[in-house]
Design goal:
With 358 residues, this protein is α/β, with parallel strands linked by helices. It is built from 12 helices and 12 strands. The structure holds xanthosine-5'-monophosphate (XMP). Xanthosine-5'-monophosphate binds next to loops.
């Protein structure tokens, strides 16, 4: 019978079978899925799992801090943080096509994970160093030291063991919409499915591949993860990179990050977190419109609010957010976020729209 306890037990058992005596790393995104996948694998193989958080520069405000504090302790595995925003933003410069953005981000995630392997081996006591790499010391390590550790241990990796498995929080809908299901077309390449490069050398471990989001949340609760993690709204791995229509750069990311923080704050204050599945905030960076602010003409960008209600993200309806909340959000964004002079509401269901704009 379907109980979260049974499912958790079975998943842990099959992860144990798949990985055997091997070692794994798991990319944490700050979302529910990767956190639950990591917790399952931690229960299955213990300290042969290391978690990796890649700061790709496409994160929302406060995301990295939350992962470094809450997630690492709840999951019980050591965490390596890579500061790879220069790398990601460099590759994304001038790219406007949504699928190209997704492919670049998916590929760079894998390159980051590859760079994390040497550090993960250190943490697991398999490195060339003196075992100085503790969880505390490694958290916050930057890209430079990651590269350094990589080359330092390259010659001895055979004797020092290897990390062959990469854990991902892929869900059933991700598989279907990335074209993985029988006879289905690709709608968009989710970063951890269709967005993967062809030359991945890791063997993928995807314990949630047959589950829907609500089932994943139930399994997470069963494993003792706190509500602050299992109750989070979905957030895509490619992050704010697919919420800027147009090319991605630091200035545009700052604009979107500021608007997104206001939306989250006001939705929470209005008590709407439980009635909304998620609310993407999108910057139309290639669109400008005329406005009047203070005592002058402006020619700024629109921000789109995309609040949706859904059971499983395969279909969705736009959420009827109270007018007062929408008014508050609109006033705050246009007053507080430079370069934004208009806020619009997306009232499209899925289908025909998708939840994310790219
Ligand atoms: P769409 O836009 O396809 O989104 O209607 C469906 C759900 O999936 C999330 N999403 C992603 N999640 N990696 C993820 O981890 C991705 O590449 C990705 N793309 C979309 C989206 O936020 C929504 O919950």
């Amino acid at each position: 019978s379907w109980t979260a306890a049974n499912i958790a037990e079975q998943l842990i058992e099959s992860v144990r079978e798949q990985i055997g005596e091997g070692r794994a790393i798991c990319g944490l995104s700050g979302g529910v899925d990767s956190a639950v996948a990591a917790a399952l694998v931690q229960r299955a193989i213990g300290d042969r799992l290391t978690c990796v958080f890649v700061d790709h520069g496409l994160l929302r405000a406060g995301e990295r801090e939350q992962v470094e504090t809450d997630f690492a302790s709840a999951i019980g595995a050591p965490l390596i943080t890579l500061d790879d925003s220069e790398v990601f933003l460099g590759h994304l410069a001038d790219v406007t096509d949504p699928e190209t953005k997704r492919k670049i981000i998916g590929r760079e995630f894998i390159r980051s994970f590859e760079r994390a392997v040497a550090q993960a081996l250190e943490l697991q006591g398999q490195g060339t160093g003196s075992g100085a790499g503790s969880a505390g010391a490694a958290a916050g390590a930057d890209a430079d030291s990651a590269a350094g550790a990589d080359s330092a241990s390259a010659g001895s990796s055979a004797s020092a063991g290897s990390v062959d498995f990469l854990v991902q929080g892929t869900l059933y809908p991700d598989v279907v919409e990335s074209g993985g299901g029988a006879g289905t077309a690709t709608i968009k390449s989710h970063h951890n499915v269709g967005g993967l490069p062809d030359d991945v050398e890791f063997t993928l471990v995807e314990p949630l591949r047959l589950l829907f989001k609500d089932e994943v949340r139930a399994v997470g609760r069963e494993l003792g993860l706190p509500e602050s993690i299992v109750g989070r709204h979905p957030f895509p791995g490619p992050g704010l990179g697919i919420r800027i229509v147009g090319a991605v750069d630091r200035e545009r990311l700052d604009t979107l990050r500021a608007a997104d923080a206001i939306v989250r704050e006001e939705m929470t204050a209005a008590g709407l977190d439980n009635s909304v599945w998620q609310c993407p905030v999108v910057l139309l960076a290639d669109v400008r419109s005329v406005g009047v602010q203070g005592d002058g003409r402006t020619y700024g960008h629109p921000i789109v609010l995309r609040p949706v209600s859904s059971e499983d993200a395969m279909t969705a309806d736009w959420t009827r957010v109270p007018y007062e909340t929408l008014a508050l959000i609109s006033n705050r964004i246009t007053n507080e976020v430079p370069d934004v002079n208009r806020v619009v509401l997306d009232i499209t269901s899925k289908p025909p729209g998708t939840i994310e704009w790219e």
